[in-house]
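Need tokens for this chain, all 268 residues.
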Amino acid sequence: MDSAAFLLTARAPAGSSAAGTWFQHTIVDSHRLQLFCFFVSMVLAFGFIRLSVRLIRANVRWWPGNITPGGLHLHHVVFGVVFMLIGGVAGYAIPDESTVWRAIMAGLFGVGSALVLDEFALILHLKDVYWSEKGRLSVDALFVAIALTGLLLLGFRPGVVDDVIELGPEDGNLTRTMVIVVDLLLAIVTLLKGKIWSGLIGLFVPVLLLVGAFRLARPNSPWARWRYPASGTKAKRAQWREERLRIPVVKAKIWVQELIAGRHDRNS
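Here are the structure tokens for all 268 residues:
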């Protein structure tokens, strides 16, 4: 039993034996402990930093507030970069046998990732758009990161990765090579059609790539601008689908995001 397993099972209550067995078998034995620590730390750090900024925005007196040494506002992305550097470099430097320390560094990397992604819009626009409509992109980026990491934690892997692993550098299997190329092309087409979630999650669930690539593009996507004439039937159908089908779903997503992350200024 390695150090991680010992820490998980030592002095565990009798009622937790089933959960401990599941965790040992599903997470530890399958070498996903570091990924688990990264995932949990990222989710908790996202929740904490969003709680913090909402308290700061509400001018709650007992909360510490922004860090402004010498009048300079240190955004939390700065601390995120530092945490990612420490966690990433230490993860490479620590021997594989030091399971617990590698898991701790993976957790630190997860915290840093959450802090950086939470200000992704600021990095993209090079200005403070945190509470503006553009700032919603940061929440979208974190939701995507959490979703993809969660799929990896559950044991899903991108189909392209599996194909590459099974193919091997010495294998000349033309069929598998074609499958890899087709998967990548379908993913590119799906993304160009403006279907980000379908394109990314479709790498894990290939049927989504087929659906995304062959259905109509979103009205303002690159694919629609290139291939759908403004007065054409496809452009009108795409606009109808956007207004009647997609916008209600987007509104529900925004409601959930604002419940967690706070309301953004729609006039910005």
